[in-house]
Each structure stands twice: as structure tokens, then as C-alpha cells.
Amino acid sequence: MKLSFCTITFRHQLVSFERLVEFACRQRFDGIELWGAHAVALAGSERERTSRQLAIMHSRGLRVTMLSDYLDIADDARFEATVRKLRELAQLARWYGTDRIRTFAGSKPSADVAQREREAYAARLRTLSGICADYGLQLLTETHPNTLSDNLASTRRLLEEVDHPNFGVNLDFLHLWEAGDDPLASYAALKPKVGHFHMKNVASAERLTVFAPDQVYAPSGSREGMVPLSQGALDYAPILAAIRDSDLFASLEWFGGEPFRVLEEDRDWIEATCGIEAARNLYWTAAGAGG
């Protein structure tokens, strides 16, 4: 396992990409996951400065792990715009040096999606996966509430329906736990198609609504119940034991306050939990590591 953090953590703060790169190097992260809006902005008016920061990252063994965005697959009327957006994201992904794009599989609970609608969603995701293949990329659906990947059974079914080698899963352990699925059993079942991990935690199941979009994306939204990995209702120790030898990136997805402090504490706790040998896999080991 290689460890990264998400720039969406800093969605409501004025923090430069340079500072995030410096933090990632100093705290021995292996990469940075870029929120789609950030990726577009940094490659636009900040392109030259961003290019210099990417060079610093690459020289020190770090990489952009994934572009995380949202592709509309709701209907044919808007799908042409979705295809254009994906092609733009794919070109950005190549420029950033990453080979993964994250999306959500729709915006409705899987239980509310009729069979013909599922088939249409799957067909559109198959088309998008083919476009990603043209660019040498993987399209990953995140296990997330109110999507076709909101539980293990529906995620497995969706993978079969899309049936494309470039379509996989960004496995968010907390959201599968939220759905009532066992995170370790889910990982075992999905493992061949998992391309990335998201890790976050919550104080109790009663607080899971704190991650609803209207809370997470609102500057004044509640953050009560968001806790570091080690302090939450989901026990991450066995999860870390299961994934620590993986070659995949695991992103810390923190939405609360004091992000630098919490990300550092989470990294330290992961290191201690995994042990010295696993820590060597987590740490950036290229010559010239900062800190």
C-alpha cells in the first residue's frame, strides 16, 4: 500500500499546491489525489507553476494518484457533454502522470434504479471506460451511497454489467460498512477490480449523514462526527493488515478541520499500526526525502 491524501480536504481553504507538495514530501506521503476542480484550475492559469511542482514531486518519488470527478450518466441528452468532459479529464490525467479517473455510478440509490435504467447506466459507463482505454486510463466507480455502487451486491453486479477491462472500483471502506457490508469480505470479493482505496472514519453510525454531499460541500456544513481513522466506529486495524502489501494507493479522505494536523496524525497511526516493515512500504524512500 502506498499512502496519499486528497486535495478535496482543502476545498474551503486557501492553500497553494506548492504547500501541499511540500507537506506531502515532508510527511513522507507517496502521492496526492487531485479533486477534478483543482486539477482543471491548476492546469489552467497555474499551468507553469503546477508543472514545476509536478517535477518536484516526480524527482522525489511522488505522483498524482488519481483525478476524482463526477461524470453524468443520467440520460442520453446530457451524455454527449459527459463524453467531452471525460476526454478533457483524460488529457489532464495524462499531463498529470496518473492513470486513474474516479467517478460515481449515477446519483440514485441502487434499489431505486429499474432494470432498463441500470442497463442504460451500464452502457454509458462501458462507453466511458472505452474512452479511458484509448488514453491508457482506468475508470473507477466509487463505493458510495445513492449510486449503483452503494453496496457490495450492486457493485459486483455493475462490474458484470459494464464488463470492461478498464472499469474498476475505488473502494471506500466506510461507505461499504455504512451499507451493512463487511469491509474485509467486500475487499476480498472485489479485489481483482479494485484500483484505489479511500479511507475515512466516523464517530458512530448515527453520524454517517455528516458525509452527505450537502454537508461535505457546504462551507457551513456540519463536521460533527468526522474523526481520525484511529478514533472511529470502523476498526481500520484489520483493514490495514489486509491491504498493507498491496501496490495500490490508499487516500486519506479528511473533510473536517485542522487538515494538516489530522493527516499527519493519521499517517503516524497507520505507520504504527502496520509496523516497521509496512511503514517502509508507506514511506517515500527515494533519495532526497524531505523532513
Automatic annotation (TrEMBL):
InterPro entries: IolE/XylAMocC-like (IPR050312), Xyl_isomerase-like_sf (IPR036237), Xyl_isomerase-like_TIM-brl (IPR013022). One of its GO terms (molecular function) is isomerase activity. Keywords: Isomerase. Residues 29-271 form the Xylose isomerase-like TIM barrel domain. It comes from the Bacteria. The keyword Mitochondrion does not apply. This is Sugar phosphate isomerase/epimerase family protein. It comes from Paenibacillus xanthanilyticus.
